[in-house]
């Protein structure tokens, strides 16, 4: 019978982890639909950014209350899940609290005591988060892109955390051996009397809480793929691959730069073969109209977005009532990428044209041209996401492929072309103001 429960445990564990790995493979395949981009530079600086921003949560504390509560939930949740190691070993080998066999009772008690305190802190933080989302009605959680699934997703994960923390405490409170040890039951000793003293009943509740706890963790793990909470994992690679160049520095299109250089060089032979070191191939498309035109870091950004809305709340275009939310830009990119991924799955591994694209079907021209390119969204993002780079790529597409810039911009570009300045004055007239 014991063996049977070990086998059932192993099957559940393999199924849970296996499904998660399968989905992560899909996620990596989707990210690889983007252009490759060289991120092999400045490895030291990248590791430091990751340690500071993802592990140290340095950008979260800019808003101290939310930042502090987030750190408690993050640290508490990660540390408490060290307990999962013990559960897995116990489940696979039929032991009970194997930690007690390898650690002195005082050390084990100290660890579990810390976990119990953290569990209570996580519960308190989660309740505050729930109130912020559902009762206090913070403006950044009320935007149109946060209706429906994004709102439910935010709440579901909070309920998950409440259930998991409660199961952990109930498991400890009803474990007679653990309670008799009287070390580490700093919180559970107060809950324990609620369950009476019938040893059979206590054993049944303890076993139920134990099984539900591990099953809940596996469900949580698999839920991540469908949720914005994927950032728990992706914040690490995303901050590693984050942009290191100064904010506001745009990449030049090498093919265009070479073309302009050629035009400016009076000795250039336009029919000459390209130089050997000239490896700038003309891109198949300038800019981006769909997710496959973006680079892999931009697609990783989209999957990492936590939907926190810090970018949107800092965005001057959004603040002045324009139809632009950098958070929505990231959510739209992710949703379109997920749609493309499903299309590939449904068509035997190849994308079948579905007549849709990111531009127009998800993100409108109006949103793109509302951006002032101020970089406030990039600065505000706690996980190094760069919504502006996607906006710029899509604008590039509009200008270079569709000649669809707004009239004001077209006028300015014509002026630059004709007059060498953005204003509609002839170069000879530039100094007229001196005469006045
Ligand atoms: S760069 Fe654009 S999207 Fe980002 S905050 Fe500024 S105006 Fe908003
Ligand atoms: S882009 Fe960054 S700041 Fe904006 S919602 Fe996503 S995680 Fe938050």
UniProtKB/TrEMBL annotation:
| UniProt xrefs under Gene3D superfamilies | Alpha-helical ferredoxin, Transmembrane di-heme cytochromes, Chain C
Provide the 4Fe-4S ferredoxin-type domain boundaries. Answer: 295-327, 360-393
Which superkingdom does the taxonomy of this entry point to?
Answer: Bacteria
- Residues passing through the membrane, by range: 6-24, 68-89, 109-131, 156-174, 208-226
Q: Which Pfam families match?
A: Fer4_9
Keyword vocabulary terms for this entry: 4Fe-4S, Iron, Iron-sulfur, Membrane, Metal-binding, Oxidoreductase, Transmembrane, Transmembrane helix
| Entry keyword annotation includes Metal-binding | yes
Entry keyword Transmembrane: yes
Which PANTHER family did the record assign? IRON-SULFUR-BINDING OXIDOREDUCTASE FADF-RELATED, IRON-SULFUR-BINDING OXIDOREDUCTASE FADF-RELATED-RELATED
Protein name stated in the entry: Fe-S oxidoreductase
